[in-house]
């Protein structure tokens, strides 16, 4: 039987640790009470965590956990002295386990991400059918959710779209389901390209989507650029992503913490005017219009 490796993180900010582990490719993330202090009878609508929480990310055997630890050190809020431990676990059907508890998720008034086995009955629903797979991006991460919210609340019909750092392709596919004319999806990971093409087929949008690895240049400016990656790559890629946005076009940047927003915004300010930021659970979304 094959094995997996699990990185257990003791952190003052378990919600942040969860999102970082998912962003680094964790197949699943669980949280455990580290001090046997149960949470009893929370108020309606609240989902409190324990005073001391261990966050565990499950990774394929052979994953470079030093890279994951580096991401935790860089992205956890200042002053969080997280500690980690590596565990080995036996194989099981983790995707099936996720699906057993998955629910359809709504973004805006009519956009839904719907895993296998879930149904959406709203008559005007725009549904993206998506299960966890080879690449990151099912709509559960706050950064992805904020991008999906933005797409659902803006006029996408007839637009051309670039999804840079596409992961599962969820943003490109959602844009196409909302009426975009054409989308290009780009990622550094060949598995992300495979996942994006598979998901495009499942959503009947393959004829309007091109998925390529990042080594191929962006050769045509588009109406909407979506980049849900990390703060440092967003800053480094600012001239390229600005050049990929038509004059009058829109850019949506996510994958950054609130404390990183001003540095990212400064990198794009030579080209863009900005709308109000989106914020969720400590994460930030920046959106703007290219005016220069």
In short:
The chain has 292 residues and is an alpha/beta fold. The chain has nine helices and 15 strands. The longest helix has 13 residues, at 190-202.
Task: Give a structural overview.
With 292 residues, the protein is of the alpha/beta class. It has two domains: 90 residues, Alpha-Beta Plaits (2-Layer Sandwich), CATH 3.30.70; 190 residues, Vaccinia Virus protein VP39 (Rossmann fold). Helices cover 28% and strands 31% of the residues. β5 and β6 form a beta hairpin. α1 crosses α2. The longest helix has 13 residues. It is globular and about 50 Å long. The protein starts with a strand and ends with a strand. About 5% of the residues have low confidence.
List the helices and strands and how they pair.
Blueprint lengths: L2 E8 L3 H10 L4 E6 L19 E8 L4 H11 L7 E8 L3 H8 L3 E3 L3 E4 L11 E4 L12 H12 L6 E5 L5 H8 L4 E6 L2 H13 L6 E5 L8 E7 L2 H6 L1 H6 L1 E13 L3 H8 L3 E3 L3 E3 L2 E8 L2
Parallel strand pairs: 6-7, 8-9, 8-11, 9-10, 11-12
Antiparallel strand pairs: 1-3, 1-4, 2-3, 5-6, 12-15, 13-15, 14-15
The largest sheet is: 8 strands, mixed
- Tally of distinct domains: 2
What's the CATH class of the largest domain, please?
Alpha Beta
User: Quick one: how many beta strands?
Assistant: 15
* CATH level-3 fold name of the largest domain: Rossmann fold
Helix content: 25-40%
Mean pLDDT: 85
Write down the secondary-structure element order: EHEEHEHEEEHEHEHEEHHEHEEE
CATH architecture of the largest domain: 3-Layer(aba) Sandwich
Q: Give the overall form.
A: globular
